[in-house]
Design brief:
Strand content: over 45%
Helix content: under 10%
Order of helices and strands: EEEEEEEEEEE
Strand order of the largest sheet: 1-2-3-4
Structural class: mainly beta
Number of strands: 11
Length: 180
């Protein structure tokens, strides 16, 4: 059991800030995965950091967690985390370099040890618009979905699914060709 009032699962003593946590997902083994936004002291660069916590409270990815996306000027924030048996799919939002309103929704597939499964991340939504209030579903029958407000012309509500196939090398989005 964790101590009363919670426990520190990630920190950084180099002057950076940590915020924008997405709720942890619990694996079948009882481990908890937590992801959040890390930013430099002046909040001009952002990145994705995460931690795996054992049910007994041991920090399995080190005292500060792991940087999955290094600090940069185009990462925005994590959206959600969905577990499919042993694979973590961490959905996040970024923007095209130089255009804060050209936002993209991406997904990163990770092993239980925090290793990236594929060479690159999945592009779930790349239209050149501002995207707001994104949320995800859990995996059910090897499929999850992300939904968001798209502030284009006209403003609309959109959804995109991610289907995990029978092999770990083909992950189609449900529309068009597989992304890999």
């Amino acid at each position: 059991a964790f101590p009363a009032n919670g426990m520190v699962v990630g920190k950084d003593d180099d002057g950076s800030n940590n915020y924008g946590v997405i709720p942890g997902a619990i694996s079948t083994s009882g481990d908890i995965f937590v992801f959040w936004t890390a930013t430099n002291g002046s909040q001009s660069e952002f990145g994705l950091r995460g931690q795996k916590v054992a049910a007994n409270g041991d920090l399995l990815w080190g005292e500060n967690g792991v940087d999955f996306i290094p600090l940069n000027t185009s990462f925005d924030f994590p959206i959600g985390l969905a577990l499919n048996i042993v694979t973590n799919y961490d959905e996040y939002q970024q923007h095209a370099p130089g255009s804060i309103l050209d936002q993209q929704i991406m997904a990163k597939a990770l092993t239980p040890d925090g290793e990236e499964i594929f060479d690159g991340d999945f592009e779930l939504a790349l239209s050149a618009t501002e995207k707001g209030h994104a949320d995800i579903t859990p995996f059910i029958n090897n499929m999850m979905a992300v939904c968001w407000e798209e502030n284009g012309s006209p403003t609309s509500i959109k959804a995109q699914n991610l289907i995990v196939g029978d092999t770990s090398t083909t992950v189609p989005t449900g529309i068009g060709e597989p992304l890999l």
